Amino acid sequence: MSASDEDHMAQALQLARRGLGLTWPNPSVGSLVVAPSGEIIARGGTAPGGRPHAEAIALERAGDRARGATIYITLEPCAHAGGRGVACADIIAAARPARAVIALRDPDPRTAGSGIERLEAAGIKVEEGVLAEEAGAVALGHILHVTEERPAVTLKLAVGADGLMPKGKGAPVWITGPDARAHGHLLRARNDAILVGRGTVLADNPTLTCRLPGMSCRSPVRVVLDRRLRTPPEARLFDDLMVPVWLICSSDEEHPTTDALQDRGAEIVPVPVDAHGMLGVRDALETLASRGITRVLVEGGPQVARAFLDADLVDEAVIYQGAKPAGADGLMPFVSEGLDRVTSSGHFMQLEARAFGPDRMTWWRRIRRCSLALSAA
Ligand code: ZN
């Protein structure tokens, strides 16, 4: 592996990151075709909707110039039918590059090493593991979808200077300034779905869309955990149905509100309840995975946040802390426990800390998930 291999893979990963939230149920992958001179011949990222795949796009753009070149891919090329009904491994073999540099093996059993074998059988020199850890983080949603039948979960929390969450009063209460909020909207756009509890819908009456200029089309599917299906049909969620609203409710009882909510455009998604009659967050995630969701942003209140942490189902946490206190009616994150549950538990490592004017953002990653992504390499 050379410094320029890492450089090119970093660029391919940048392409992959750009597609996050757009390519489900497929992973967002990036690919570069580079001439022996070092000149970048072509770039490709997985198309919105998940097809064509990144390497097929990059090779199509490279044309004949791919012969003898190096192709960089952030995930092992598929060995099952991809792009135009042909597996990417076969498309690459036909394009005859001299080398293929691959960040990560694909745990999908339809590929799982056979994509690489096919390249080697075609006489292409394959190198694996370049920037594997970063690639694992970018592909985590796909990896968990395949290995644990659930999407990757990012928890988003906004607290005041006092560490408490502001309590909504029929509309969202902003505890941070516009720059931190814009960052939060970008976070929404990079996920396939955004999940809250019914309590948040009642308290904040949010729209849960991505409101960055030109990015409303990148809003993720909106999911509400609502065991007894008591979300009010007049909630603002239903005012804009450009992106779907899925209401997850218990499958073991009749819900008289079903028709009214469906009339408002909601999709009703029944899930079995656990022994305590509660909606299990693990079951909810499996249901989302079965619908193709690979990345979920959990933006619920303290109860929902704690349920995901208690079930050990939080892979990353993004905490925005404003300069003002949330005040006397602020809510404790994770119900009775504060932010320490993430920041001082030893289970999360801090990836990033950033200031947005007077506000502060910290990004945390579950330590075990990190090594899980690596072991999939
Ligand atoms: Zn493919």
Provide a descriptive summary of the structure in words.
- With 377 residues, this protein is an alpha/beta fold.
- It has two domains: 3-143, 3-Layer(aba) Sandwich (Cytidine Deaminase, domain 2), CATH 3.40.140; 149-376, 3-Layer(aba) Sandwich (Dihydrofolate Reductase, subunit A).
- 30% of the residues lie in helices and 21% in strands.
- The chain is built from 13 helices and 14 strands.
- It has helices spanning 3-18, 54-62, 88-95, 114-121, 132-138, 140-147, 178-189, 198-204, 258-263, 281-290, 302-310, 340-343, 367-375; strands at residues 30-34, 40-45, 70-73, 99-102, 125-128, 152-159, 193-197, 221-225, 245-250, 267-271, 295-298, 316-321, 348-356, 359-366.
- The strands form two sheets. Strands 10-9-8-7-11-6-12-14-13 form a nine-stranded mixed beta sheet, sandwiched between helices.
- The longest helix is centred in the first third of the chain and has 16 residues, at 3-18.
- The chain is globular and about 65 Å long.
- Residues 373-377 have low confidence and may be disordered.
- Zinc ion (ZN) is lined by residues 53, 77-78, 82, 88.
Q: Provide the structure class.
A: alpha/beta
Mean pLDDT, to the nearest integer, reads 90
Helices and strands, in order, run as: HEEHEHEHEHHEHEHEEHEHEHEHEEH
CATH class of the largest domain, named Alpha Beta
List low-pLDDT spans: 373-377
What's the arrangement of secondary structure elements?
Layout: H1 3-18, E1 30-34, E2 40-45, H2 54-62, E3 70-73, H3 88-95, E4 99-102, H4 114-121, E5 125-128, H5 132-138, H6 140-147, E6 152-159, H7 178-189, E7 193-197, H8 198-204, E8 221-225, E9 245-250, H9 258-263, E10 267-271, H10 281-290, E11 295-298, H11 302-310, E12 316-321, H12 340-343, E13 348-356, E14 359-366, H13 367-375
Parallel strand pairs: 3-4, 4-5, 6-11, 6-12, 7-8, 7-11, 8-9, 9-10
Antiparallel strand pairs: 1-2, 1-3, 12-14, 13-14
Helix pairs in contact: 3-4, 5-13
The protein binds zinc ion (ZN).
